[in-house]
Structure prediction request, 373 residues.
Amino acid sequence: NIQHFRPTKAIIDLQAIQNNVRHLKEYLKPNVQIMAVVKANAYGHGDIEVAHAAIEAGASMLAVATPDEALHVRKHFPNIDILILGYAPVLFAPYAANENITLTVFSTEWVQNVQSLKTLTKPLKLHIKIDTGMGRIGVTKIEDLLHLYNTINSSSNLIVDGVFTHFATADEEDESYFNKQANMFEQFISALPAKPRIVHAANTATMLMKDKHLQFDAVRFGISMYGLAPSAYVKTKLPFPLQTAFSLETELIEVKQIQAGQSIGYGATFTATEPSYIGTIPIGYADGLIRKYSGQHVLLDGIRVPIVGRICMDQCMILLPTAYNIGEKVTLIGKQKEEEITIDEWASKVDTINYEVPCIITSRVPRIYNTKQ
Ligand SMILES: Cc1ncc(COP(=O)(O)O)c(CNc2conc2O)c1O
Prediction:
């Protein structure tokens, strides 16, 4: 592994990932496959390492979002089923067939364009996406589903390997919209002449909260594989404990005392009202610590201290309770002594959801893996 000189790093606990997958496997009906959703670099956790951990713990399929992600994962996993959940251009179809990558399809015209390519040397596996209310991609009428299904089956080298939908409100207490989607999905798949090999509909909230028959043949395990709950509501109803996998750490690189009236940071937006100790840490918005996070607490010596002044591109400043040594560890996400700062806390600071926080920690922050037993 390459040596990192800057002390800022994300530490990923692969044991936590494995425990989350194992707990889910025990919870699911037997023979329901776990599709580990490792798109967006595994929600910022590192797609290859997370995929290895998830497979070891019982996942048997991988889901990504883009052709590039699929090709990258295929390089490390020659045999496992890989599904691209989103759109892939027609020109990618021969590459997907070659690499045994499964594509999502929702347009008959797309299929006809692939058929006219005449460059498909190997069979191409397709999962038909039904839009039952997510309003993103998918067929919305039964006749379109059947037309698409029959068009695919008119080619010997195109295979309807699966059919799926995605729920927009599975993580909410009110089930009305969810139930409409679930009923519509059941109606659509029962109209198919034959059941595709893999029928799937469940994201984390669905597999944890809803009737087990909605697990169908496979579930798409994303956010809670990383130990995070999909929403505050689901967090109160978890059928098994989750273990968070992501922590974020750095070290003090400068400590100074400033006097009352002295200011720090761009715009001199923070002015001390009394003699104050200021620590500087090497992490900024180009690491994914967006400027709106200013004011958020971080941990040092087990104490919560606030980020003060404007967050810079590569650094930011924190208000210390007293003098500390250079090199003192600062935990932005994780535990110190009795204190913990969670991804949920960072998310609520900027009124977003926990999914977004690890995703936007940029590649400049190395991911270090500990497989502590
Ligand atoms: C089609 C599809 N299936 C499964 C998942 C996993 O959901 P989970 O992480 O809640 O288990 C996602 C996540 N997609 C997104 C999560 O946040 N924004 C998204 O587009 C998805 O888009």
